[in-house]
Amino acid sequence: MPGALLLILATSWSAVALAPPGSPTAAWWPAAGIAIALTALAPRRVAVAVPVLTWVLVAVGAWLGGRSGDIAIAFGFANAAEAAVAGLLLRRAADRARGRHDDPTDGTDDTAPLARLEELWWLGLTAVIGAALGAGIVSLTLTLGGYGDGLQALRNVVVSHAAGTLVAVPAAVAVSRRRGPARGSQRALLETAAQVVLLGATMVVTLFVGPGGGLLALAPVPLLVWAALRLGTRTVIWEVVALAVTITVAARIGSGPFTGTADDPARAYLLGALVQSYVICAVLTALPLAVTMDQRRGLLQRLLTSERVLRRGFAESVVGLLELADDGDDLRIVDVNDVAVGMLADRRDGVLGRRLAEVFDLPAAEVRRTVAGGEPWRGEVSIAGRPGTRVGVAVSAGSLSRPGDHVSAQLVDLTPAHEATQLADRERELSRAVAESAACLILLVDMEGVLVAANPAAEAMLGWTEDELVGRFVWELLPADRQGAFRRAVADLPAHQLPPSSEADLLCRDGGRRRLLWSTDFARDPDGTPTMLVMTGIDVTDERRQRLLVSQLLEAAMTTAIIGADQDGRISFFNTGASRLLGRPAAEAVGTPFVDVLDPGERSRRFGEPVAGETPQEAFFRLTLDIEPGRPPVPEDLTWRHADGSTRTVSTTLSAVSDPDLGVGILCIGRDVTEQRQTQELLMAALEKERTAVERLQALDHAKNDFVSTVSHELRTPVTSIVGYAEMLRDGTVDEPRPDQAPFLAAIARNADRLIGLADDLLTLSGLESGTAELGRERVDLGGLLERGRDNLEPLMRGRDLTTSYRLPDGPVLVHGDPDHLDRVLVNLVSNAVKFTDDGGRVEVSLHAEDGEAVLTVRDTGIGIPEGEQARLFTKFFRSSTAQERAIQGTGLGLSIVHSIVAAHGGRILVRSAHLAGTTVAVRLPLQEAPSRPGQEGADAPASAVHAEAGERPGERALPAPPTTGRTADLRRG
Predict the structure, then answer these.
(1) What residues contact residue 644 under an 8 Å CB cut-off, 6+ apart?
(2) Where is this region: Disordered (predicted)?
(3) CB neighbour list of residue 632: distance below 8 Å, 6 or more residues apart
(4) Which end is more exposed in the chain, N or C (fewer Cβ atoms within 10 Å of the end residue's Cβ)?
């Protein structure tokens, strides 16, 4: 940096000192090029100071060279402006060139100065722009100050500054860029030395030619071309610098072909311009040629290196490779690697020159036709004469426009795999025969838990066919409470070892269950790695059912009172449960009246006051008067009396026994429900308290809705004013805004619109929830509504790369409702699909009638909704975790509003979604011709899966997609 600044001072002084006598401008001005190069190449924090320093140094140098103070200052300013403008342009051009040419295989050497022709083009352009700017300032200064002919000075300064820039900038770049590794042999060094000596001798001879030397003045140019063709850019740059300095100094001291007389200033001006024009021509002749040759040498070197790598890869590849040449009818082998030779079990010279059809059993004409058509040919073939072999052949696509064109082929030996496949097929057939003849259930499950096979016994036992079972997860056959544990166990296979035997229920197609005793084991590959889970089951349903019945009866005998009474109302059977419940042993109770079991107060409540003199037998008759054989017994709560005098509330069932041989006429089964009834009473009291709390919460909710409505109304009024005033400021009604104010005004308007939208959403939702919203009730054609809404949704697609499609039925789809609110349902659903779908995705909107309902479906391929969050999908302010992670804007009110509107119209919403797998939302509204079915209110309809319809429906039509989608829309009918 300091050296460059001193060089600007020195060249400024020397250029003025070497100027023709009486001339206000110098014949050559290298200081301009040095200043431009320093501005372009210096670090950014230093480059901003270079024009100012250039002004000072050029002014000082011109003053030291003999210029007046005002001329020196003007010349310094001209050079500073030239350095600032041209240096900035050159820096930006270099940055863009480096950004576009970062590929190391483009054939350029980034260590060489001006390694690309594009950089030379920008150098020439900046040289002209900078020279024109500096010359304009100098010419204007001389004209206004009366120091000389301004037009003549303009011509000389343009030429001298352009020549100085074209010479100094490449030299500066050559110094600043690191030198790459030395290239060339000793012979190349000798050639360089000889060329330099010859160029120096030529320049010496040219300098002594004198005026009118004619063609001898062009003698150095062929030598520069020689250097450009043979020696590289760096050598050419320094030779051009030497030529420019030599011929400029020679012209000043009166030597060489461009000299004039001291008493003829006009000729001196003209010859000075000719000298610099000569320098410019030398630069433009030699430098582009040198850059082109350097690029050519780099590309050639890379091409040779790539060919060596490819040949080595061909020879050392672990895959069999053939190089094939087209002979017009077939493909002939011209090269082969060792792997292919070993695969063919032949010698190398026995393979070369043979046609592909002579080596393999394949359709030669089809192979050649496919490859020539631009498609690769692949197939499994056998080696000619060896039918038991299998080789995978892949012939690459190529242009076979003339005989001799080459393509390549890859060979893979598939013989071991083919033999193993045949063996596996035989073993598979044997296993299938065993499975089909077995009487037990057999299921084959892969390591992911998916059923891959089931035997006929499984089909008969479960009621599903094998095709219906294959592809399902095995845990889907288990009851819901067992699926999770089994699924986790399968996910950890084979680390988690399933028990070798266990019992479990399986679900049948008819909804029943079968109890099976399971045996599990793994099928393994030759390495011992588990590949399949084999599950064998024996049906033990009937056996376990009988055992369970006996077990339950035994358990009931301990906790349930079973009392038998004969026709006369005396106890004939008293089980252990009755003894525990009443505190009386069976021996004491048998033979006593059955009515003694009941509390006297219960008898009064049931029959009223006892009849005077009524016997226990008569009381029993009244108790069992309504019991008839074959009539289902009805349990009722009766109060029984314990032996200690306490009472129990017992759920009692009385039934008639029709078999008199049992000695029992009435069978009484009782279960102590004293604590249960007490708990129920407590629960009822708690429920009453909860009902009161709910009423209070509802009152609070109404108050909250009123508050939200009031705040939304109050918020909307000032925000509307903000929007209006912002629009007045933006459109210049008050005052034309400055360009730097436009983004702020746009941000105010945009965020105010968002606040208005939020207030509108809150007001709409509050009205729908409170029932105060007034909904129109008229005939609405959803098809027409969708057609009109398509144009209104067009701004949503602007700037997005989405494929959209609209499908409608040919006829009207009429519902009874409010068109504005139904339009809002469509807008909210489609805007959600667009917002949560990345560019390159797809949004589909369809409408059809089905089962007395209008079905509006919006599908997208967006980010989806995690399954665990879908239960809160229609709650206010809900936003999925994926949307929050991606910072997608939204309030979370859109789907809540849609849900409320659909519920108000007697419809329902069904959703199918998965994380990062898209979302399908279907809105089902009752058609006007069909009444709404009970239980289909949208508020009560649970979110469930929507199954996409396949194919097209007759009578449907497709709307064209908006033109701003940026992609071709799906225009299928239906």
Answers:
(1) 583
(2) 929-974
(3) none
(4) N
Give the pLDDT confidence score for residue 858 in this predicted structure. 94
Measured distance CA(126)–CA(123) in Å, rounded: 5
882 shares a domain with 830: yes
Q: Which residue has the tokens 């000298």?
A: 275
In a domain, 63, yes or no: yes
pLDDT of residue 761: 66
Comparing 573-582, 678-687, 833-842, 939-948, the range with the smallest average pLDDT is: 939-948
Mention every residue, 6+ apart, whose C-beta is less than 8 A from residue 202: 219, 220, 223
Residue 954's pLDDT is 40
Q: Among residues 384, 378, 334, which one has the least CA distance to residue 354?
A: 334
Contact 320, 343 (CB under 8 A): yes
Which residue matches tokens 């314990």?
642
Band the pLDDT of 216: cuts 50, 70, 90: low
The domain that contains 699 carries what CATH number? 1.10.287
Asked if 584 and 625 sit in the same domain, the reply is: yes
What six digits make up the tokens of 545? 């059912």
Q: What is the pTM of this model?
A: 0.37
- Residue of 640, 625, 638, 533 whose CA lies nearest to 580: 640
pLDDT digits (tens, 9 = 90+) for 829-886: 888 888 889 999 999 999 999 988 999 999 999 998 898 888 888 887 778 888 878 8
Give the model confidence (pLDDT) of 305-356 as tens digits. 777 777 776 777 778 888 888 877 778 888 888 888 778 777 777 788 888 8
Residues of the domain holding 510: 426-539
Predicted pLDDT at 953: 43
What amino acid is encoded at 511 in this protein? G
Q: What is the DSSP string of 440-466?
A: SEEEEE-TTSBEEEE-HHHHHHHS--H
Task: Record the tokens describing residue 32, joined without a space.
Answer: 């301009």
Rounded to whole angstroms, the Cα distance separating 194 from 433 reads 92
Whether the CB-CB separation of 276 and 135 falls below 8 Å is answered with: no
Please compute, for residue 282, the number of CA atoms within 13 A of its CA located in the half-sphere on the CB side: 30
Three-state secondary structure call for residue 94:
helix
Query: Residue 305 falls within a domain, yes or no?
Result: no
Residues contacting 199, CB < 8 A, separation 6+: 220, 223, 224, 227, 239, 242, 243
HEC readout, 122-180: HHHHHHHHHHHHHHHHHHHHHHHHCCCCHHHHHHHHHHHHHHHHHHHHHHHHHHHCCCC
- Specify the pLDDT at position 860: 94
On whether both 524 and 553 belong to a single domain, the answer is no
Tokens for 416, please give them.
Answer: 């071991």
Q: How many CA atoms lie within 13 A of 14 on its CB side?
A: 14
* Same domain membership, residue 708 and residue 634: no
What are the C-alpha distances in Å from 614 to residues 618, 622, 937? 6, 11, 60
Q: Can you tell me the distance from the alpha carbon of 330 to that of 321, in angstroms, rounded to the nearest whole number?
A: 18
- Asked whether the beta carbons of 371 and 407 are under 8 A apart, the reply is yes
Last residue within a domain, chosen from 539, 558, 586: 539
Q: Which of 177, 178, 224, 181 is nearest to 200 (CA)?
A: 224
Question: Mean pLDDT throughout 181-185?
Answer: 54
Burial of 436 (0-12, 13-18, 19+ CB in 10 A): exposed
For 592, left (φ over 0), alpha (ψ -120 to 50), or beta? beta
Residue 949 pLDDT: 35
pLDDT at residue number 920: 95
Is position 131 within any domain? yes
Residues 18-76 pLDDT 10s:
666 655 566 566 777 777 777 777 777 777 777 777 777 777 766 776 677 777 787 77
Q: What is the CA radius of gyration of the chain?
A: 50
- Return the structure tokens found at 919: 């979302």
Please give the pLDDT value at position 950.
Answer: 31
